[in-house]
Amino acid sequence: MKQNLMFLILFILTNYLCNGQNQYPGGPDIPTNKIEKRILIDSASKIRYVIDSTQTTIVALDYKNKVLWVSNPNRDNKLGNYRTFKPRMDNFGFKKLKDSDYKEVIFVIYNNTQFGFIDKLTGKFTFLGQD
Predict the structure, then answer these.
(1) Which end of the chain offers a freer environment for a tag, N or C, measured as fewer CB atoms within 10 Å?
(2) How many other β-carbons are positioned within 10 Å of the β-carbon of residue 74?
(3) pLDDT band at 101 (very low <50, low <70, confident <90, very high)
(4) At residue 48, does pLDDT exceed 90?
């Protein structure tokens, strides 16, 4: 009986610890837009932010489909390899952050747990860290 109880406790603890490994930095305060959508639309400016099929580059397009900027945050900022050879954007969304003086930006999380934000007007990426 004691063995079964110890096994059950060990199983529950192991399962709890393993589930925590898949969480992104920032916990529940991250954007909920999953990358399957590939497009964010700013309702005020009508600018569309489109992620390419490799999930590495974001293009900003105005209402006439004119390219405003192109940003590959990982390459442009020479973030280097961390956990994966070619990191890709796993999650993105609009967010107001303290680090951006509460100006709305595009918050990006990579599949290697690096994260930061892109200025909506310029496409400039600001690296915030990695888990």
Answers:
(1) N
(2) 24
(3) confident
(4) yes
C-alpha span between 25 and 83 (Å, rounded): 15
Q: What's the chain's Rg over C-alpha atoms?
A: 19
Q: Which two tokens stand for residue 120?
A: 């909506």
Question: Under 8 Å CB-to-CB from 92, ≥6 apart: which residues?
Answer: 31, 33, 35, 40, 51, 58, 106, 107, 108, 109
Residue 19 has pLDDT above 60, yes or no: no
pTM of the model: 0.66
Pairwise CA distance, residues 92 & 125, whole Å: 13
Strand order in the sheet with 114-118: 89-96, 104-110, 114-118, 125-130
- Selection from 14, 15, 35 nearest residue 24 by Cα: 35
Burial code of 34-63, b = ≥16 C-beta within 10 A, e = fewer? eeeebebeeeeeebbbebeeebbbbbbbee
- The DSSP call for residue 94 is E
Q: How far is it, in rounded angstroms, from Cα 37 to Cα 123?
A: 19
